Amino acid sequence: MKRRSIMQYAAVAAALSLGLTACGGASGSTDAKAAGTVRVTLANHVWTEGIKAAIPEFEKSTGLKVELTQLGEDQLSDQYNVKLNAGSDEIDVMMYRPLQEGKAFAKNGYLADLTSKVSSDAGWDWKDYQEGPVKASTVDGKVVGVPIITEREVLYYRKDLLKAAGLEVPKTMDELEAAAKAIKAANPDTAGFVARTSKSAAVTQFSSFLYSFGGDFTDASGKSAVNSDAAKKAYAFYGGLIKNYGPANVSTDMSWPEAMAIFTQGKAAFYTEADSLYKNATDPAKSKVADTVGFAALPAGPAGSKPYNIPSWGLAVNQASGNQDNAWKFIQWATSKERTLAAQKAGVPGPRASVWADPAGTSTYPQDLAEAIAASAKNGVGHDRPEVVTVGKAREIVGGPIVATITGADASTAADTAHDAFQKFLDSEKK
Amino acid sequence: MSVLTPPRNARSQPGSGRNAGPARSAGENFSAWANRHRKWLFAAPAMIFVGVLIVFPLAWTLYLSLTDSQGSVRAASEFVGLENYLTVLSDGERFWPAVGRTLTFTGVALVCEVVLGMCIALLLWRPFRGEKWVRVAILMPLVATPVAVGMMWRLIFDPNIGFVNQLLGMVGIPPQPWLSGQDTALGTTIFMDVWQWTPMVVLILLAGLTSLSEEPDEAARMDGANAAQRFFLITLPLMMPTVIVAILLRGIDALKTFDILYATKGKGGGSFHEVETLNVYAYGLSFDYNQYGLSSAVLILFFMIIIGSMWLLTMRKKAVSK
Fold it and tell me: Can you tell me the distance from the alpha carbon of B46 to that of A174, in angstroms, rounded to the nearest whole number?
């Protein structure tokens, strides 16, 4: 058995890349169960920091021991690809991205069915979870994860620059463009607008623009809709904002750390980004504009203000683990109302309705941000990327026109090209 | 594994015909057995290592490349013969450009590294004051972690706040896009590779230079040859085997470069796949797209390219050595 698992590791490691190795030395899940240990793999996140500090509390109350592995987002994905592919039972609890990996993991049978577990404890209360996050954690009618962090796209802006220009906070996309233009013209060193520009990373932030212009990635019948008139307008608008009023020499490799850096260095007036990252802009240790940053709901497009409202991270149980009961105990504790409130107070928006209804739940948020979040939760859309199995590939395809428009190409042509590729991709997934 | 353990119930069998004589203990029995099979015993650890970590993975990759495996390697997959190879070889959008970039990256980086490395090695050849310090300084890039190197250069080359553009600004040159430019990204990563790996070439060439006998050079000097003549007609031909070793080692490494490309441009080698080499492409196919069959086909083709170019170089080395 031992020998076979070594062989499997070697095989998978080689199959994935001739260079990257995969072997880990941890023991199997039955040993862990006997020793009363839960092996938990988490991503680097503010949420994780809070949980890490509280783990002794869990260990004391349950008598279990937690073995924590913490990794960056990309490394986490790679780790899952290697270990879960090999059928490893070395992970019990896994932090995962329901919209990015959920469908693929569920299809591959990596995620344990939690349906009976979530409904077994009325005190923990699965009904307390918001509808969108629950939908995203459910695949083919089975609950495969418990959402922990939710996100909506909001507008970050600079109060001082707006005041100096004598402008109001933009309520519509047209006002946003006019304000970005005016500020850029008045301050040549400051960009009017900044946002993610990297083909794949920009897709999620572009999605809110797409919905607000009346489009979506696919239509009701599941066919590609990225070349609809609304989509073409949205591509042209998002790319145009960055091309015309963005930073000089704008890079097309920016994900949130790069775009956030430009905003927090005081080099941009407007920035659209996930609300869960707001601490980066309001923390004086990280941001030069901590005193002057304001928040507002996403400006309304022709179809209204329709930001995404999604669960960015969830906790799931590894199907191959023989330690699933202990794993569930950990999830139950980490997602309890008390822990969700504590995380939310530390700046991590959660998925529980009761915590949002509780004044303490928003007590640490800037007033304008809490209002923007409330508005977004009401009219938000439940996905921020194409809802497919191979999300990575789909993002590259539908992100193409964003980058093309930023670099000055025609949005309409780029959207037509992307449409053909995306439809081909969707057809291949159906097979 | 069983070959390494002595037979459990090894008991001496007095008077059993063939081995008549004094009784032998289990230990003696084993050492006699080990002695008879020592060539296998000594080679066993290495053979098991090679088998498990090289031959088996390679065979498995070859097998995967002939299937339509995707999503999970444990999921059911069908044998599709050479279909993956045909798909890959007819892919003019990602595969062939990646081949081109891999060869450009390796070729340009190698030429720069060997020429620069030779110049620096020649400078360091003769002893001089402070030689030790200069050598340490030159070796610095070599010990830095590639990912850290990638991050460092990414900051230095940042189009807006980077040091390089500020420096250029001082002499009146407009800011350049460097890593973020569609046409400049590959060149910039080549520069980073040259910066990091030239020291290794210097080390190899310096070792070769120090082992050269000085007589031919002195004789040429007596005959009135100038410095250039002595280098091109005496030193370089004598150094050829070492140069080829340097090219061989650095070439394999450069073909497989992944870390600095991934650290500076991320998955897919940038939004326009500007720096997507075969390695980066195969990584994306397996880790991002989970298309293991296709990815394995790319890796096998890549493997063949590496083996092929190394074979050519080794042939050349043999010719030079003769």
Answer: 69
